[in-house]
Design a protein that fits this description.
- It is built from 13 helices and 7 strands.
- By secondary structure, it is mostly helical.
- The strands form 3 sheets. The protein has a 3-stranded antiparallel β-sheet.
- It binds benzoyl coenzyme A.
- Benzoyl coenzyme A binds next to α3, α6 and α10.
Amino acid sequence: MAGLVPAIHVFSLDEEKTWMPGTRPGMTENVSKEHAMNVNIMNVDYSTKIPNNVNLSEDRQVLKALEGWHPGYMDWWSDMGPEGFQQSLVYLRTAYSVDPRGWAKFDYVKMPEYRWGILLAPQEENRVIPFGENFGKPAWQEVPGEHRATLRRLIVIQGDTEPASVEQQRHLGKTAPSLYDLRNLFQVNVEEGRHLWAMVYLLQKYFGRDGREEADELLRRRSGDADSPRMLGAFNEATPDWLSFFMFTYFTDRDGKMQLHSLAQSGFDPLSRTCRFMLTEEAHHMFVGETGISRVVQRTCEAMKAAGISDPTDIAKVRALGVIDLPTIQKKLNLHYSLSLDLFGSEVSTNAANAFNAGIKGRYKETQIEDDHQLKNATYPVLKLVDGVIKRVDEPALTALNMRLRDDYTQDCVKGLLRWNKIISLAGYNFKLTLPNVAFHRQIGEFRDIHATPDGVLIDDATWNSRKGEWLPSPDDGDFISSLMKPVTEIGQFASWISPPKVGIDNKPGDFEYVKIET
Ligand code: BYC
């Protein structure tokens, strides 16, 4: 890691603006005694082939298993990771510590030389299981035998999403709207790769032979493959263009945030610690999504204003300006939000109840909720289809945990919409981006067998088939967006359809060369 710049990247689990101006180099010098004692577990050992803060050099068996898995991972990265650019120098952040006060360093790295490693947040002393039937008992440092299968399943599902997203995004480098965006794409990709490592470590350390087999399977499945697809629906969909990428990082990575928060509550302490550190990296991914969409909206509004267009729904006129019209942005939003809702599973789920009872998967911000943390007599309102009408029905809170998490997710999603709508209204346009109704375009759960409009009005198959192009991107919309996806690789330049960011990565100036492209 020679040549890396000083620590400047701080985090908070709820903070999505991860590049905060005013964070200062050298900040780790001013540390408390207690902090100094923790430095060993906080700092990452880069002297071994697999960087880690879990003492891998003294855990020969796991080290051997991970070293055995490493070549397959590199093959996967070369086959399914970003297409092209593998010899380019990319200005990437790499975690060198798990200290919230400064954990990342930036430097030019060729992607295949990125130091993927195993990083766990520091162990909390005397941590107890914060929910479920084992509430208040010491957190497990080993896998409890009776919950082994449930735990393994959740870790495998989590692990499966990470390489899937890299596979979905692998073509995007060829059409990046700027070097800044290209670098952000690659940052997201290498970190999703690291998150795969995080799950593989848990499988190999705690699940023996079947864990090793699952780790191999994670490299075998492929997004969208007919015979061997990724496990969850949204991870088999295409990410055909950069607007989809921004929507994916805003909406689908945010499902990741909610799921990781729930797993970070786990009574299985290594999973909790792993997820806590993953969340710090994840924040940047959602930042890329939120600011990406903001920049698209901004550019569209600026172009409409400059051209004197007063009606933002005059699609032909807006498109003629080489920007993406707001109704098409809404359609993309409808698609990615509804696909992401499916990732929460069924509204009423015994799987979710069992995982909670067992102490394996908690609720969002579990420790901040004031109740019995066991949900013995509690109920939760669930949206259901009753006699052909969408109704709120009280269900036992235990089985309604997926619904609750999904509600928390929706609330979190709204924040971005408020920001995007502010850009639109400040530009003087009477147009609002909205989240579609939860019954719209669903493949999992209560509404999977019906059709509904984005406003939640139930419609029949014929109406859906004739009108779905009004609500979801049509092939024509896709063609138009594709026509804009021309790469821009000049330093400091941006494609016609997106504004430059307000702040550079690592506070770099606008003319910074984020990727030195090797041709
Ligand atoms: N697609 O009781 P049910 C991220 C299956 S994203 C296909 O309704 P449950 C990231 C389910 O597996 C976060 N199948 O739901 C983001 C089950 O099958 P089995 C990923 C689905 O189990 C961007 C059956 O239906 N992490 O990190 O309560 C970039 C009945 O299940 C789907 C996690 O999801 C679907 N959408 O909840 C990179 C956390 N939904 O077992 C990364 C771990 C359900 O009967 N996973 N099924 O064969 C979980 O907590 C749960 O498995 C789920 C489902 C929330 C996914």
